[in-house]
Amino acid sequence: MTTLLSPEELEARLRDVGRRRYHSLHPFHKLLHGGELNFGQVQAWALNRYFYQAMIPVKDSSILARMEEPELRRAWRQRIIDHDGDREGEGGIARWLKLTDGLGLDRDYVTSLRGLLPATRFAVEAYVHFVRDKSLLEAIASSLTEMFSPGIIGERVAGMLKNYDFVSKETLAYFDKRLTEAPRDADFALDYVKRNARTPEQQQAAIRALEFKCDVLWVQLDALYFAYVDPAMPYPGAFVPEAARARQEA
Ligand SMILES: O=C(O)c1cc(C(=O)O)c2c(n1)C(=O)C(=O)c1cc(C(=O)O)[nH]c1-2
């Protein structure tokens, strides 16, 4: 039988999930941050991750719609504004497209999702469905990977600026804002989970939700690794970096 944890013990268990399973541990990220990917592989990462970015406000709208207290909605709606902006050209999704522009990818191609790997699509959709179908507590707990993101973002920006001449501070500007947004969002969500997971079952469900979310992030990198690093077999129809395409056509 599982026992009731104190809020502090629950937090420690949640943080432990990140220590063991966060996508900072994935070999694809180690290559990305260490400067060991080529231009086409970095393009593939940015193109696939666009779909994650684009669906974040969709999943947050679904969480918002289930919040019955104005106080909660007021806090959560900021996430949607952060990603969508208040007008065309503003917000996180627009900033992500600056990155894909900077990497020479055609905007219409990126947003059409034609080049996406199927595993990216399935993982991101699973996240959207999870928050829709599970309890509000689990939906909020699944966002808690953001507790761990400032560390990886710091490492990523420093590593990419140092190692790749095809990225700049301007093209990586997306991540600047995340360094303040993510801790604010994670503090709020962690406080909610600590206050509302009041039974051993609810606490276990919150921990499992965070594990699930780590899986959502992890499999996206598995898919990139398989398609673009080793054995480098892009799914038929998915994005093919120019160099690989030229080889295929030769
Ligand atoms: O760069 C990253 O490694 C990273 C990780 C995560 C995360 O841990 O889920 C998010 C983001 N970035 C991010 O930019 C973002 O907007 C975001 C929203 C969420 C969420 O679950 O609501 N996670 C993340």
TrEMBL record:
Its EC number is 1.3.3.11. Residues 12-222 form the Thiaminase-2/PQQC domain. Keywords: Oxidoreductase, PQQ biosynthesis. InterPro entries: Haem_Oase-like_multi-hlx, PqqC, PqqC-like, Thiaminase-2/PQQC. It catalyses: 6-(2-amino-2-carboxyethyl)-7,8-dioxo-1,2,3,4,7,8-hexahydroquinoline-2,4-dicarboxylate + 3 O2 = pyrroloquinoline quinone + 2 H2O2 + 2 H2O + H(+). Pathway: Cofactor biosynthesis; pyrroloquinoline quinone biosynthesis. Pfam families: TENA_THI-4. It comes from the Bacteria. One of its GO terms (molecular function) is pyrroloquinoline-quinone synthase activity. One of its GO terms (biological process) is pyrroloquinoline quinone biosynthetic process. It is an enzyme of class 1 (oxidoreductase). Ring cyclization and eight-electron oxidation of 3a-(2-amino-2-carboxyethyl)-4,5-dioxo-4,5,6,7,8,9-hexahydroquinoline-7,9-dicarboxylic-acid to PQQ. Belongs to the PqqC family. This is Pyrroloquinoline-quinone synthase. It comes from Ancylobacter defluvii.
